[in-house]
């Protein structure tokens, strides 16, 4: 596997559709790339994966905001969970 260096960048805002509603999310480019890879691995669009993560975060007692949930989900995935 090719090793990539981390490039520190400010968040980039993108619009995604969740249940047919546009939502803006600001994530650093490295998280957008990780989300795109995770969606590709799951054979689904980024919007569908974001919607799944959004639905899952709402099942916890004190749900984090969507951006935080995405970062946590991606980090958990990177750790193998």
Word description of this protein:
This protein has one domain: Orthogonal Bundle (Ribbon-helix-helix fold). The protein contains 3 helices and 2 strands, in the order E-E-H-H-H. The protein has helices spanning 29-41, 46-57, 66-78; strands at residues 12-18, 21-27. A two-stranded antiparallel ribbon has the order 1-2. Strand 1 and strand 2 form a beta hairpin. The two termini are 20 Å apart.
State the main characteristics.
single chain, 81 residues, Ribbon-helix-helix fold, 3 helices, 47% helix, 17% strand, globular
Structure in a nutshell:
With 81 residues, the protein is of the alpha+beta class.
List the helices and strands and how they pair.
Layout: E1 12-18, E2 21-27, H1 29-41, H2 46-57, H3 66-78
Antiparallel strand pairs: 1-2
Helix pairs in contact: 1-2, 2-3
Q: Examine the secondary-structure arrangement and name the CATH architecture.
A: Orthogonal Bundle
The share of residues in extended strands comes to 15-25%
- C-alpha end-to-end distance: 20 Å
The parts where pLDDT drops under 50 for at least 5 residues are none
What is the CATH topology classification name?
A: Ribbon-helix-helix fold
Find the count of extended strands (DSSP E, 2+ residues). 2
Query: In one word, what is the shape?
Result: globular
Return the average pLDDT rounded to an integer.
Answer: 93
Radius of gyration: 13 Å
Helical proportion? 40-55%
Structural class: alpha+beta
The CATH superfamily appears as protein bp1543
Largest sheet: 2 strands, antiparallel
Tally of individual helices = 3
Number of domains: 1
- Please trace the helix and strand order, writing H or E for each element: EEHHH
Q: Which strand order does the major sheet show?
A: 1-2
For the record, the CATH class is Mainly Alpha
């Amino acid at each position: 596997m090719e090793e990539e260096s981390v490039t520190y960048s400010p968040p980039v805002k993108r619009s995604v559709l969740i249940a047919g509603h546009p939502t803006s999310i600001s994530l650093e480019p490295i998280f957008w790339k990780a989300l795109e890879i995770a969606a590709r691995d799951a054979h689904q669009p980024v919007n569908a994966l974001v919607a799944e993560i959004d639905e899952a975060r709402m099942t916890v007692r004190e749900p984090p905001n969507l951006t935080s949930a995405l970062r946590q989900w991606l980090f958990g995935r990177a750790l193998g969970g």
